Structure formats: C-alpha cells, structure tokens
C-alpha cells in the first residue's frame, strides 16, 4: 500500500503543478507584451518539462508497482497519469516546437494564438493529472 500512496502523492504534485500553470502562471504570462510572453514561456518550459515528465513517469511506474503488489485499480490511475506522455508527444510537442522556434519578431496574432492553443492542451494534461489522482484515491480506499 505504501507504493500506492507514493503514486498518489506524486499524482497530486503533478496535478497541483499543472493546475498552477493553467490558473496562475499562463494567464499572467498572457498579460505581457507578446515578446515578453514568449520569452517567459520559453524559460518556464525549459524548467517545467523535465519536472512534469519525470513526475508523470515516476507516479505511473509507482502505480503499476502498487497494482502488482496490492490492487489492480492502481493500474488504472497509473495508466491515466502515464497517458500524459503520448498526449504530450503527439498533441502538445508540435505546438511547443513552433513556440520554441518563434523568434523575437514573431507575428503577434500568430504567437498569441499558439500560446492560447498551448494553454488548452496543457489544461488536458491538468485534467489527466486530476483524473489519475482521483483514480488513485479510489484504489487506495
């Protein structure tokens, strides 16, 4: 059960970080001039990508271990948390790459639209984290 609770804690940290980005950091970023918003997004992305990817992987693997040791229901929560990886790779990364490649002279409307698209995609990641956390709570009960 300890591994399952560890997976739950990791899913909670992942969810909290993802939600913070959606409700605090990104809306504040979008109030900046587009050049500053892009610059801030790039700096934030470099720091957050490794952390969030690592949390999703660590929590998912811990949940799989808990499923093998304790209860099969941990597998469902772990799978949802791990679903952030393919979702990010196939849906979010194309937008990330475009944002990272955009220069200082990016067209404001296009850059702002890409940042808004990114926020919607990141909200899906937040929802996956919350769903995984709820499923892991269910498994732990």
Task: Write up this protein.
The chain has 141 residues and is an all-alpha fold. It has one domain (2-140). 89% of the residues lie in helices and 0% in strands. The chain is built from 5 helices and no strands. The protein has helices at residues 2-29, 34-69, 73-82, 84-101, 108-140. The chain starts with a helix and ends with a helix.
List its salient traits.
elongated; mainly alpha; 141 residues; single chain; 0% strand
Write the layout of secondary structure elements.
Elements (H helix, E strand, L loop, with lengths): L1 H28 L4 H36 L3 H10 L1 H18 L6 H33 L1
Helix pairs in contact: 1-2, 1-5, 2-3, 2-4, 2-5, 3-5, 4-5
| Low-confidence parts | none
Q: Structural class per helix/strand content?
A: mainly alpha
Characterize the largest beta sheet: strand count, sense, and whether it forms a barrel.
none
- The helix-strand sequence is HHHHH
- In percent, how helical is the residue content? over 70%
Total beta strands = 0
Head-to-tail CA distance between termini:
10 Å
User: So how many helices?
Assistant: 5
Average of per-residue pLDDT values:
95
